[in-house]
Amino acid sequence: MNSTAYAITDLADEQARDEGFWQQVAAQYDVEPGPVNFEYGYFGRMTRAALKDYEQNLAYVNRSNSVYVRQKFDTEDSEFIRADLADLLNVPVREVALTRSASEAVQALIRNYNGLVAGDQVLVSDLDYNSVQTGMRWLAKNRGVEVIEVTHQHPASHDALLQTYRDAFAAHPRLKLVALTYVTHRTGLVMPVKAIAELANAHGIEVILDGAHALGLLDFELADLGVSFAGFNLQKWIGAPLSLGFIYVKQDRLSAIDPDMADERYGADDILGRVPYGTPNIPALMTLPKVFAEHRAMGGAPAKGARLAYLRDLWVTQARTIDGIDVLTPDDPRLYCGITSFRFSRHADQELMVKRLLDEHGIFAVTREGSACGTCIRITPGFTTSAKDVDQLVAALRALA
Which of 16, 138, 289, 319 has a CA 20 to 30 Å removed from the CA of 257? Predict the structure, then answer.
């Protein structure tokens, strides 16, 4: 990391603790009265200004109908928006295409990956999203490949995560494709993507990256991760309207992804043909330039990620001292972000404890299942979350533990 990068990180860390600054940020959002929300992992809020822009776009498209869409949006504005996205990601515009979600993007990559023959192997883990797991199993039914499923050691460590993949790659020489989740939706564990991709590439294995929770939460350079295929959301930490994500395919690997359902609208070298065809949420897409500008003005991923990690540390540091609370996400700064999960170790029914958090303490959270560590409660702060809200969470944990 160079001196400029250190300066940016130090500034973001200092700003993360500035409650006055984040009160100003929070004031840009309208919040419905009710429980304290610690479930921002599902989707994010639009600011008041972005929502107004979205509503105006919706009204305009409704008024102008296909006249605007055919004459201007399809031919000019959509490409301007895609170029703005590429600029945000610091990748060539030809390597990205907008989709309805990260899931749609990743499923399209799995479905259309043409580098497999019967007898090959593909790999998923217990931490991958359900639709990613089922997508890889779909390959087994339709392409005759074998699905290798690995379970990650708990508690997780950087070395153990790498060793799991190192062992799997060595034990299964017919592996050709691996699904990898950047930030797992279950516990918030951050996978060491670049290191795992290097291991995969050394074995001739390609990676499809599920970045659904990562963009805007983690500070990374997409082109430096060492993956050629990925899907991301714009509706979580970037602040876009619901129904927006994008697909990423490195240009020199585009030929490995077939046009979706043999789509012939675009040339063989155009990524736009690799995503499902249909009428998109045009008013939402029109709102993206406003959303991207706000994201940059807030300080981008360095500022957002530092704030959410700070709020996470506020409650986790205290929760680790509470007898009866088991924090499941490690404290290695390489492996966590703003999302972290825990369980009440003295209570078998975590779903019941989520209900008690809400009914008795006004805390809204959700359970997640499917990982080796078992059912857990996910805590995800957002940009309107204050240190006072975290104090309320910690008080609730102490009372219920």
Answer: 289
Collapsed DSSP state (helix, strand, coil) of residue 237: coil
Fold of 55-294: Aspartate Aminotransferase; domain 2 (3.40.640)
* Burial of 344: CB neighbours in 10 Å, binned 0-12, 13-18, 19+: buried
pTM for this predicted structure: 0.94
- Fold exhibited by the domain 3-45+300-400: Aspartate Aminotransferase, domain 1 (3.90.1150)
> Residue 80: how many CA atoms within 13 Å on its side-chain side?
11
Query: Residues spanned by CATH 3.90.1150.10 within the chain?
Result: 3-45+300-400
The dihedral built from the CA positions of residue 26, 31, 36 and 39, taken in this order, carries a sign that is negative
* Mean pLDDT confidence for 83-102: 98
Tokens encoding 221: 């350079």
Q: Which residue has the higher pLDDT, 263 or 218?
A: 218
Q: φ, ψ for residue 340 (rounded to 5)?
A: -145, 145
Is the peptide bond preceding residue 280 cis, with omega within 30 degrees of 0? no
Per DSSP, 183 falls in state B
